[in-house]
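Key result, reporting period 2: structure in, sequence out.
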């Protein structure tokens, strides 16, 4: 085995992570109202629904542009049902575990969703850079503090 392959960790994958959160305490009731819509939209955009972690619904995608478009469709579908959602997206390596996904990229995606206002899709600079040429447009949102360990990140809001 070459030196480059010696540290290969097959439990880590590169993915775009989509986090959807609501701004109310009874999020489990609201997510139950949109669960079928979420499953359908995530499948349509070729994503994989991971489930829920704390107050967020999580899905993974192999392409950030599809993840952004899915986020917009989910926010719109939820709004029709009276559910107010916000979305955060980040692309990075994550660890695949028996119960789902974990790692720093997961933390970043969750924090971006928390930084998003209702009806907003907030993305990391990484996501914005990866979709260059896709026709998607962004508005600079400034910096989001992702905690002492992760520091400040440049973030963008997707123009909808």
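The corresponding designed sequence is given below.
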């Amino acid at each position: 085995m070459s030196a480059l392959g010696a540290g290969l960790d097959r439990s880590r994958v590169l993915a775009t992570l989509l986090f959807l959160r609501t701004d109310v305490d009874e999020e489990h009731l609201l997510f139950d109202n949109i669960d079928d819509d979420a499953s359908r939209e995530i499948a349509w955009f070729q994503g994989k629904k991971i489930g829920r972690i704390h107050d967020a619904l999580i899905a993974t995608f192999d392409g950030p542009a599809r993840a952004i478009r899915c986020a917009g469709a989910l926010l719109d579908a939820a709004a029709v049902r009276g559910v107010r959602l916000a979305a955060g997206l980040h692309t990075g390596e994550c660890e695949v575990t028996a119960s789902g996904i974990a790692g720093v990229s997961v933390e970043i995606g969750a924090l971006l969703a928390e930084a998003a206002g209702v009806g907003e899709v907030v993305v990391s600079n990484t996501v914005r850079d990866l979709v260059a040429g896709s026709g998607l447009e962004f508005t600079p949102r400034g910096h989001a503090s992702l905690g002492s360990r992760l520091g400040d990140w440049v973030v963008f809001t997707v123009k909808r």
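Strands lie at 12-22, 48-53, 56-61, 85-97, 100-102, 121-124, 138-145, 152-158. The chain has a mean pLDDT of 87. This case is discussed further under Risks and Mitigation.
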